[in-house]
Structures are given as structure tokens and as C-alpha cells.
Specification:
Helices cover 71% and strands 0% of the residues. With 212 residues, it is mainly alpha-helical. Helix 4 crosses helix 5.
Length: 212
Amino acid sequence: MAGQTTDKRSTATRLALIESAERLFAEHGVDGISLRQIAADAGCANTNAVTYHFGSKQALVEAVLRHRVPGLEARRGELLAALHEPTLNELCDALWRPFLEQVDKAGKHSYAAFLAGLFRSGALPLRAAMSADYPVTGALLERIAAALPAASADLMASRLPLVTLLITGTLTQIDASEPEAQAAQARFADAVAMTAAALAARPTEPNGRDQT
């Protein structure tokens, strides 16, 4: 019985650390916050709690990803299964809508803000390195690439982080301005349409001329 209580307490502590890290990394970037600050924010008396439970800051970042991504993966699977001969815009919506639907206890889009924090810190490749573990998202990205003109598909890997920032930035604005639900949906839909247009845009020469 004592062992079960200890396990439950340990699990609760890990979750508190993950949620604090998600929010603080979003606000300050990965390099802008210390492990001790994360532990204090999570209410841990032991300031070395992150090291004890995760070992390192990178491992904590990965723990946040593994806490959130399975739910996003499952939802993307549901959205993709509901589509029949989808357009590029519908595929992009299936990719990003789980970001809109995910909110923390305060009603904020915490994971989207966390990803933006990873981008600012140059740590976004940590998420890309996990891609093989989440095949639904990989399949969805393949469907999106197949819907693009060939020359644009070749640029998808370099454009994807940029359009991710467009989506996360939109959700950050929604959190800050707190519009009515219908207005938030419209703002999100507009951002999705912009990501589809950006991914499909024709490559240009350095002088600004269309390569095609």
C-alpha cells in the first residue's frame, strides 16, 4: 500500500513538472529557465526534482512532447479518417486542428506556445527526431506533400517549421485577445488557409522571379 502511494505521488510530481516546464519553456524558451525554477513552479520542495525524475533539461523537453503528442496523434487519426478525397486545406486543418483543441487548465493553448518556445531556442529538431514514433502524423504529412506541386513539395521540410510558427503565433494571439469562440474559429481557419497557400507557393529565384 505504501508503495502504491509513493508511486502515485511520484507520478503526480512528474506531471506537475511536465506542465510547469511546458508553460515556462513557452514563456522563456528552453535556455531562459532553470531546472530549479521549474521545480519551484511545480511546488517541489526539492529543487533538484527535475534531475531526479528526468535527468536533464533535454529529457524534460522530450517528456513534455511525449505527454502531449500521443493525444494529438490520435486526434489527427480521427480527423484524417473522416476525410474523403481531401483538399490541401482540409489536410492542413487535420494537421493543425488538434493544436486549437488542446488547452491547459487555464484554457490556454499551452502546447502550441511550447512549440514556439522550442523554435526560439533552436530545439524544435527534438520533436522532428521523434517522428518515427508517431506514424499518423507522418502519414498526414505525406498526404500533404503529395497534394503539393512537385517543386513546392521539395521545399516542404524547410517550410514546415515556418508555417508551424504561423499556427502557434495565431493561437498565442487568440489566447491574448480571448475572442468569442466563433471569431477564434475564423481566425484559426484563416491561419490554416495561409499555411496551405504557403506550402503550395511556387519557389522563387533569389531575384524574386518565379522558378517555374
